[in-house]
Amino acid sequence: MANYDPNNIFAKIIRGELPCHKVYEDARVLAFLDIMPRAPGHTLVLPKAAARNLLDIDAADLAHVAAVAQKIARAAMQACGADGITLQQFNEPAGGQVVFHLHFHVIPRQNGVAMKPPASVKEDDGVLREQARKLAAALAGA
Ligand code: AMP
How far is the CA of 35 from the centre of ligand 1 (A)? Predict the structure, then answer.
């Protein structure tokens, strides 16, 4: 497996060098909206620690990321009026990973509505801003 690259796009977002539509942040985790969502409210949950994927992350960091993903899933059920949640996580190119900083996809789902293909349509900034606001508010009230 390749080494962690500190210049990957998510590392730059964590360092504040690139913008994001933030949903949640604590000392060890950052969560923000996917700019090419597979469904409205599609959120990425990342450890701040330098981890390429599931194969090299520290177990305690993984446990915290999973706990935050659960909180976001619960908040998204309310904030996005979801009927269910799809959780995805990819490892290495063979596993479908494109950005090499570990992240979980939390994808709110509606009954009978298929997900868009991965990275197919860039969502409007104003739409993302409003979804991030709603999700952050639901999390704050949770
Ligand atoms: P994967 O590594 O296969 O889990 O895919 C990376 C995901 O990151 C895709 O769903 C992209 O739409 C998403 N993505 C890529 N660049 C950005 C960005 N700057 N901000 C938010 N999401 C991004």
Answer: 7
Residue nearest to atom 5 of ligand 1 (CA): 98
Residue 142 has pLDDT above 60, yes or no: no
d(CA 112, CA 96): 25
Quickly state the pLDDT bin for 2 (edges 50, 70, 90).
Answer: very high
Residue 98 near ligand 1, beta carbon < 6 Å: yes
CATH architecture assignment, domain 9-141: 2-Layer Sandwich (3.30)
Predicted confidence at residue 43, as pLDDT, reads 98
| CA 95 to centroid of ligand 1, rounded, Å | 15
Instruction: Express as a percent the part of the chain with pLDDT over 90.
Output: 98
103 is catalytic: yes
Which tokens is 3 given?
A: 């080494």
Per-domain residue ranges for the chain?
9-141
How is the beta sheet containing 84-88 ordered, strand by strand?
22-25, 29-33, 43-47, 104-109, 84-88
